[in-house]
Amino acid sequence: MDIQHIAKLANLFINKNQQDLFTSQLTAILAFVSKLQEISTENVEPIAQVTGLVNVYREDMIDESRMLTQEEALRNAKATHNGFFVVPAVL
Amino acid sequence: MNIQKLTIISTLEGFRTKQFTAVDLVQECLANIKKYNDDYHVLLTVVNEDALLTEAKEIDKTDYSLPLSGIPIVLKDLFTTDGLRTTAGSKVLDSYTPVYDATVVRKLKEAGAIIIGKANEDAWGHGSSGENTDYTPTKNPYDPSRVPGGSSSGSAVAVALGMCLVSTGTDTGSSVRLPAAFCNLVGLKPTYGRVSRYGIIAMASSFDTIGHLTKTVYDNALICEVTAGKDAFDATTADIPVPKYTAHLAKTLHGVKVGIPKEYFETKGMDPRISDLTRKAISALQTLGAQITDVSLPHTNVAMECYYVLVPSEVSSNLARFDGVRYGNGRDTFGAEAKRRIMIGTYALSSGYYDAYYNTASKVRTLVKKDFDDAFDRVDVIVAPSSPTLPFKIGEKSYDPLAMYLSDIFMCPVNIAGIPALNVPCGFIDGLPVGIQLIGPQWSEEKLFQTGNAYELHTNHRD
Questions:
Q1: What CA–CA distance (Å, rounded) separates B308 from B361?
Q2: CB B193 within 8 A of CB B112
Q3: Exposed site from A6, B93, B383, B389, fewest CB < 10 Å?
Q4: Which of B405, B395, B283, B385 is closest to B344 using CA atoms?
């Protein structure tokens, strides 16, 4: 497995020292879970949730009890500018 | 007053009959924190002493009429608390101070509970031993060379060492029940959707449940009355009435059908002494009037494989948001286990592998859930061991992630199916606590509390 490719997809940095250990650990875990492929799942529907709830809606109204002020929203940011979050340059 | 001997209900009685005050109790909690926290690494944040005493004094002016008036509580550090540092056990959130309360935190405060502090845990809930914390791992109070169980490690030890009377935890695969089993406590993993997840830092959103740890079944039922119920801020909570669990606890077990899953006793690595103790507990239930039958959960042998595809997939998605821009530190601060789970999930969801891993596991999830549905057509409660082994040594499994994952073999299937389970202490082996697990169909918490209560009163393992 190409650990550096997966790390890149996940926006993680794996250094050279960790690379071999992670590769062997992830290979072992993936070998373990591959046993799933031996189970007959023909005609079995996949499920992504177990509550049985379907289409839970709410009124499209502003709920002020869960709104943050701008000051609160920015309070934990390391860098702000004129009431905005500062992000690293993308381009 | 000795906090080790107190339950919520005896504490409220003590307050109301003026035997001691909320201030006395808070001081006792703080004394135990001073005495033990440096050695056992239980709490990551303790609320300021003056603030705690002021809060307790205010409660002492009342007639203690709220359900949890003056009850000291510790929260797992995944519970978002307004103005109180919340780390998730991770250095990513080392200096994060939330600006709102989780729904459960709000409910506990409104019920009169006093929040003492925030508990150590496996970072993000990823672990079964507490060793995956980015801080210093918590130790087991029954043997400090052993793990207390995780991921709600500090939560369990905080109750066991008298730093509080009750603590909260989250359970995505075992994280309330295993520490409860390893620390001689009652721990509830509620039905998925019974307790709001709003404001609880997410691990795997279709598996996460919000539970708690107490000394007795009665206390556990009482907390559930406070925390359970529909929440407009969590669309996966069901609009099903919350029973007054404590009102109907003392129900006889006559006619209750208890199923024993034979696959669980055939598992490789099962400690035969734990099998024996579990069978003794089953005999006790039979003495109390329960009818015992064998049931089969045929997909037990692939449940862990299913879990370790689906949960890391959801983890990789949930942890994608932590970029250090709006709050917290950058992604370079993730610990090794978080990185492993993010990468397994990323791999399982990536183009070309999605069908083989995520989609197949989602189908196996259907089969695991159906196993339980079929079993509950025949029985009311399933009884199983909580853990195949005793609390293990610190360091014993930390270099082998796969061996660590298999500590949860009797617990993860319950989360796959979204059903409730209660860990109840069932005795000791070599001075170490052992628990049994009572598992029920969706929304059957009341039946689990009744069964656990009857067993607890019959056996009295705490004394």
A1: 9
A2: no
A3: B389
A4: B405
Measured distance CA(B5)–CA(B11) in Å, rounded: 10
DSSP 8-state secondary structure symbol assigned to residue B418? T
Whether B463 has a pLDDT exceeding 70, the answer reads no
Chain B interface includes A48 (CB < 8 A): yes
Q: Which one, of A10, A48, A16, A20, lies nearest residue B342 by Cα? A: A10
- Check B343 against A56: CB less than 8 A apart: no
Question: Which residues in A lie closer than 8 A to residue B327 (C-beta atoms)?
Answer: 76-77
Q: Which amino acid would we find at residue B429?
A: I
- Which single residue is written with the structure tokens 């959801």? B314
Q: How many domains does chain B have?
A: 1
CB–CB contact A50 B192 (8 Å): yes
Pair of tokens at residue B128 = 């079964």
Q: Is the pLDDT of residue B266 over 80?
A: yes
Q: Which of B100, B206, B316 sits opposite A48 (nearest CB)?
A: B206
Instruction: Quote the minimal CA–CA distance from A91 to chain B in Å.
Output: 17
B237 in Cβ contact with B348 (< 8 Å): no
Check if the beta carbon of residue B389 is closer than 8 Å to that of residue B434.
Answer: no
Question: What band does A66 get if pLDDT is binned at 50, 70 and 90?
Answer: confident
Chain mean position to CA B128: 11
Coil, strand or helix: which one is B344? helix
Q: Are B127 and B151 a contacting pair, CB within 8 Å? A: yes
Q: Does B317 touch chain A (CB under 8 A)?
A: no
Report the gap between the CA of B73 and the closest CA in chain A (Å): 24
What ipTM was predicted for this assembly? 0.96
pLDDT at A62 over 60: yes
- Contacts A20 to B, Cβ<8 Å: none
Inter-chain residue contact B326 with A85, CB threshold 8 Å: yes
Residues A4 and A2: their CA atoms lie apart, in Å, by 6
Which helix (DSSP H) or strand (DSSP E) does residue B373 occupy?
helix B360-376
Q: Which of B269, B254, B46, B62 is nearest to B164 (CA)?
A: B46
CA nearest B284: which of B427, B463, B160, B117? Answer: B427
Is-catalytic flag, B5?
A: no
Residues 54..73 of A with a Cβ closer than 8 Å to B: which?
Answer: 56, 58, 63, 66, 68, 72-73
Check CB contact under 8 Å for A14 and B308. no
Yes or no, beta carbons of A37 and B360 under 8 Å apart: yes
CATH number of B23's domain:
3.90.1300.10
| Residue range of the domain that includes B126 | 3-459
Query: So where are chain A's domains?
Result: 1-36
For residue B403, the model assigns a pLDDT of: 80
Closest Cβ opposite residue B334 in set A1, A12, A37: A12
Residues B102 and A64: their CA atoms lie apart, in Å, by 16
> Mind listing the pLDDT tens digit for each residue in B291-348?
999 999 999 999 999 999 999 999 999 999 999 999 999 999 999 999 999 999 999 9
Q: Of these residues, B153, B175, B316, B444, which one is catalytic?
A: B175
pLDDT for B460 beyond 80: no
| Residue whose entry in the numeric block shows the structure tokens 């080790």 | B4
